[in-house]
Amino acid sequence: MEGCDGFYEAQTFNVDLNRREQMKIVRRLLLRAVDLFVDLGLPVVLSGVPGNHGENRKNGKMFTSFDDNDDVACIEQVAEILQANPDRYQNVSVPTQAINAGDLTLTLDICGVPVGFAHGHQFRNGANSQAKMENYLRGQALGRQSVGDAEILFAGHLHHFVVSEGTGRTVIQVPALDTGSRWFTETSGASAPTGMVTCVISSSNPRGWSELEIV
Hints:
This protein is α/β, with parallel strands linked by helices. 28% of the residues lie in helices and 20% in strands. The strands form 4 sheets. Strands 5-6-7-9-8 form a 5-stranded mixed sheet, with helices on one face.
């Protein structure tokens, strides 16, 4: 697994499961999450974006298209499973056209708020993670890319929690769910607690979001 900042690579023998087994766990976790929301009678939109960890690589480099990626392949596979039971999953939508568009980002209208999602490995310029997210969003807006319209941008590549409204838009970097890299901590001294970010998004709120929590 490549390090989030590109400075290290974990040794292969530190990975507990092979690629096929990892994808199986992801599918089962996604299905479990969908089932929990369906049992509550809630509508579900299931989607995602390609990340560097899901890339198909040769000699350490991606050699196919952006959308040839295990991260979105798992979502596509789950979508096909859901289609086999349309009665149960009638309130679940999976915008597969969005994850097959060859883009590294996804932009959704959530209750009147344009929300962008990116893994974050494509972010480049900036002194820290906040600056990288904000500079990326500026560039996308200037280039008239769809994610440039986002009022809120979510990312997670650097594995620690950040939130900023300093530009008039909100950028949120979510923490990782894994326990981090011992090698990264040994070489930098840095670490961050794990967690999952939840929030309420609605245009009725002046910020566009509220009730942000890390669980």
